[in-house]
Amino acid sequence: MSDEAIRVLLADDHPVYRDGLALLLGSIPGIEVAGTAANGLEAVERAVELQPDIVVMDVSMPVLDGIEATRRITAASPHIGIVVLTMSEEDATLFSAMRAGARGYLLKGAGQAEIVRGITAVAHGEVIFGPGMARRVADFFTGVTAAPDEAVFPQLTPREREILSLVAAGRSNAQIASALFLSPKTVRNNVSNIFAKLHVADRAEAIVRARDAGLGR
Fold this sequence. Notes:
By secondary structure, the chain is of the alpha/beta class. The protein is built from ten helices and six strands; from the N terminus they run βαβαβαβαβαβααααα. It has two domains: 6-136, Rossmann fold (3-Layer(aba) Sandwich); 147-212, Arc Repressor Mutant, subunit A (Orthogonal Bundle), CATH 1.10.10. The chain has a six-stranded parallel β-sheet with strand order 2-1-3-4-5-6, sandwiched between helices. Helix 8 packs across helix 9. The radius of gyration is 20 Å and the shape is elongated.
């Protein structure tokens, strides 16, 4: 980045929030609001047209959601930085956004200084998370990469032990699928196999068995 103003495209389907944020950012020295978009498809089209430095992207939008819009924009214009600004604190949404190419993830409760810092950081090639999100990312991947002891539940395959460890950590099937790059159906099938092999009736009983064995901590 040069010393020129950071050109920002705002994508959000709520006009009051979108217009308010545009006014706020437009008043900040060093930031220029290049345009706005009311849905994900419009965000893709406007990004191609305007070639901003940064797109501030909501996730839940009509026509095309922010995750898919992010994927299309970064595929077409890898130099454009995407900062997701959303209400969602779900791990699955966070990791889906990052895999789609987003380099920033902030919550809509963020203050002006935090949003500006996020935009500036991503414009200069950094990756940034809101308060608490970075720790959740680190904790999440620590849990994923820690291979469960093969002596625990030897009747399970390595993949099943990995999934059981995440189940024991309280992750939903959707979150497990997102973290392990598996389809939801594959996760469901593995979870069913785990229940059968452990002779447990449901998820709660599986969690108790797994935690007693030291998994998911």
